[in-house]
């Protein structure tokens, strides 16, 4: 993509309304623009990041046998009345009426909708277990939306739902998703820490939230130092015992956010206690028959009679992750994208656009990288070098390739690693191999 043609409305100054790093940098880097309080348009650069995050989340859901579908944003209120949540959910839920005066709502979550689909189609224990998910826009009418996409009213969410015959099956589904979340955040370049959590309006009696450490996090986090060094095995166990052992490893040491912190337990850890800020990026729940029972979602059991399936739900804030990654990965100059989610892998900077030799060298590099499947943002604008360098650092692409008249004459180009800041002058082929991952 040529930057002279790309829609990238960057800003030089920090917007006055932005209070945290991710909000400032997303606005300055031309990723988002506010439509109304807590609601944002995703511009091309931001949308590419969002799509990359979604792709990784979906791949990890698919890997554990969770099947993708798509449910509507608007739901009938009658489903929520069946579960007794319509009046209990609170003013965060946007309630509306259609032209026939039927009560509807803009879905903040989908437990009722998925239970309705399940009860209409699944009739036998032989069809269990089921893991289903979708990625859909949600709306929660926050009383004070702030921090950009980190606490907005409209957001993109991956929510999954499990249906099992009994508690043992439901716990295995929960554990599969627990490990899947750890692997998902790892693929996104993040270190997530699972912590026991309150169930809130979702309900149930077993819940974990996943937080990443960031200086500007919304929650205070307390955890054992060992958690920061835990690694996932290359392959995930597929049996119930192996999964439980892996979950037990990650939950056997102390970890709590401020609302569940026990100062006595924390102080007992001494120097092993890590105190930091954290951002919630995922939340999982086991809630048994909270929805299946009142909504009469039953299946025939193995011994005859009817059984009410056990359920769980599992959310990841896809759009929130874009901001969370920035909070965890930036410097004074701008964003530093992990390679897995970056909108482009390489920023190609022509220091003297209009110079025939520089233009030809850049075109050659651009075509060569594209031929290797490398995404490139080519800064071919007629701008000063300082502006180009500042914009590339701001948008945070992992690699910069700098082509100037001096280098062209001597047969070298400069490459810069955005994360380390390391610069090297290499010949064309060596530079291409390095930035392409070869």
Strand content: 25-35%
What's the total helix number?
12
3D shape = globular
* Helix-strand makeup class: alpha+beta
What is the mean predicted local confidence, pLDDT? 94
The tally of beta strands, per DSSP, is 23
Helicity range of the residues?
25-40%
Distance between the termini: 22 Å
| Sheet with most strands | 9 strands, mixed
Low-confidence stretches: none
Radius of gyration: 25 Å
Explain what this protein looks like in three dimensions.
31% of the residues lie in helices and 28% in strands. The chain has 438 residues and is α+β, with helices and mostly antiparallel strands. α1 crosses α8 and α2 packs antiparallel against α5 (167-187). The longest helix is centred in the middle third of the chain and has 21 residues, at 167-187. The radius of gyration is 25 Å and the shape is globular. The two termini are 22 Å apart.
What's the helix and strand layout?
Layout: H1 21-28, E1 32-36, E2 39-42, H2 44-63, E3 67-68, E4 74-76, H3 77-82, E5 94-97, E6 103-106, H4 111-121, E7 130-139, E8 154-164, H5 167-187, E9 192-196, E10 206-213, E11 219-224, H6 240-251, E12 255-257, H7 263-268, E13 273-288, E14 299-300, E15 306-307, E16 310-317, H8 318-328, E17 330-331, E18 334-335, E19 346-350, H9 356-371, E20 376-379, H10 385-395, E21 399-403, H11 405-410, E22 412-417, E23 423-427, H12 428-435
Parallel strand pairs: 3-7, 19-20, 19-21
Antiparallel strand pairs: 1-2, 4-6, 5-6, 7-8, 8-16, 9-10, 10-13, 11-12, 11-13, 13-16, 14-15, 17-18, 21-22, 22-23
Helix pairs in contact: 1-8, 2-5, 2-8, 5-6
């Amino acid at each position: 993509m040529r930057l002279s043609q790309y829609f990238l409305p960057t800003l030089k100054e920090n917007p006055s309304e932005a209070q945290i790093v991710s909000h400032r940098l997303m606005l300055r880097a031309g990723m988002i623009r506010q439509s109304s309080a807590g609601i944002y348009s995703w511009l091309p650069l931001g949308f590419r990041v969002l799509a990359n995050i979604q792709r990784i989340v979906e791949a990890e859901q698919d890997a554990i046998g969770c099947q993708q579908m798509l449910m509507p944003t608007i739901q009938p209120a009658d489903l929520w009345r069946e579960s007794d949540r319509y009046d209990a959910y609170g003013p965060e839920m946007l309630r509306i009426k259609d032209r026939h005066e039927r009560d509807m709502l803009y879905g903040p979550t989908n437990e009722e909708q998925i239970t309705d689909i399940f009860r209409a189609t699944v009739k036998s224990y032989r069809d269990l277990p089921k893991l289903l998910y979708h990625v859909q826009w949600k709306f929660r009418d926050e009383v004070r939306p702030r921090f950009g996409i980190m606490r907005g009213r409209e957001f993109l969410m991956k929510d999954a739902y499990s249906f099992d015959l009994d508690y043992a099956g439901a716990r295995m589904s929960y554990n599969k998703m627990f490990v899947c979340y750890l692997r998902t955040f790892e693929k996104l370049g993040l270190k997530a820490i699972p912590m026991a959590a309150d169930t809130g309006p979702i309900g149930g009696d077993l819940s974990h939230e996943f937080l990443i450490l960031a200086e500007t996090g919304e929650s205070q986090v307390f955890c054992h130092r060992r958690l920061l060094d835990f690694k996932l095995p290359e392959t995930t166990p597929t049996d119930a015992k192996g999964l439980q052992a892996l979950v037990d490893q990650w939950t056997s040491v102390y970890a709590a956010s401020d609302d569940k912190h026990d100062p006595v337990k924390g102080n007992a850890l001494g120097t092993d206690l890590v105190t930091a800020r954290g951002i919630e990026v995922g939340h999982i729940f086991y809630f048994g028959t909270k929805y299946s029972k009142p909504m009469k979602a039953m299946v025939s059991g193995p011994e005859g009679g009817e059984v009410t399936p056990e359920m769980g739900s599992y959310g990841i804030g896809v759009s929130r992750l874009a901001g969370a990654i920035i909070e965890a990965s930036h410097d004074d100059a701008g964003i530093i994208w992990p390679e897995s989610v970056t909108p482009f892998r390489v920023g190609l900077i022509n220091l003297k656009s209009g110079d025939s030799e520089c233009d030809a060298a850049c075109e050659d590099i651009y075509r060569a990288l594209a031929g290797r499947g490398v995404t490139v943002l080519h800064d071919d604008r007629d701008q000063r070098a300082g502006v180009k360098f500042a914009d590339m650092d701001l948008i945070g692409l992992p690699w910069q390739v700098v082509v100037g008249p001096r280098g062209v004459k001597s047969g070298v180009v400069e490459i810069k690693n955005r994360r380390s800041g390391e610069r090297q002058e290499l010949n064309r082929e060596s530079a291409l191999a390095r930035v392409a991952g070869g």
